[in-house]
């Protein structure tokens, strides 16, 4: 009973400009939300996750995401893009009910 939708299949930005990768979720229960990154020829790496509490989550490499329950969104942002950020970014949601599996979608960030 949960899913995520990444609203941009590909985002192209110039170095030094802000990054926004949008993710909306649907969940019947209290969601746990994740952003992962996959750099070229590498495995998935956890960028950040929201479980509960503070809605603004700071991750690695200057990325952050804000949990907005009213908008069912968990958008990933970075104040200033760097060429090394070029990668695939995956938003995922997992209900707090252990029997349910999460869903993983992807955004491709290009420079």
TrEMBL record:
Pfam families for the chain: V-set
PROSITE patterns with a match to the protein in the record: IG_LIKE
Transmembrane stretches, start-end: none
Protein name, as recorded: Ig-like domain-containing protein
Organism the protein comes from: Papio anubis (Olive baboon)
GO cellular component annotations of the record: T cell receptor complex
Keyword Signal set for record: yes
Segments forming domain Ig-like: 2-105
GO biological process: adaptive immune response
Sorted UniProt keywords: Adaptive immunity, Immunity, Immunoglobulin domain, Receptor, Signal, T cell receptor
Lineage: Eukaryota, Metazoa, Chordata, Craniata, Vertebrata
PANTHER family per record: T CELL RECEPTOR ALPHA VARIABLE 8-4, T-CELL RECEPTOR ALPHA CHAIN V REGION
């Amino acid at each position: 009973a949960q899913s995520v939708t990444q609203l941009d299949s590909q985002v192209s930005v110039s170095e030094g400009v802000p990054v926004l990768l949008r993710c909306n979720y649907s969940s019947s229960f209290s969601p746990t939300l994740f952003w992962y990154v996959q750099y070229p020829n590498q495995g998935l790496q956890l960028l950040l996750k929201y479980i509960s509490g503070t809605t603004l989550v700071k991750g690695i490499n200057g990325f952050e995401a804000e949990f907005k329950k009213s908008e069912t969104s968990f958008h990933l942002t970075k104040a200033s893009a760097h060429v090394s950020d070029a990668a695939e970014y995956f938003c995922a949601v997992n209900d707090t009910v252990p029997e349910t599996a999460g869903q993983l979608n992807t955004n491709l960030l290009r420079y």
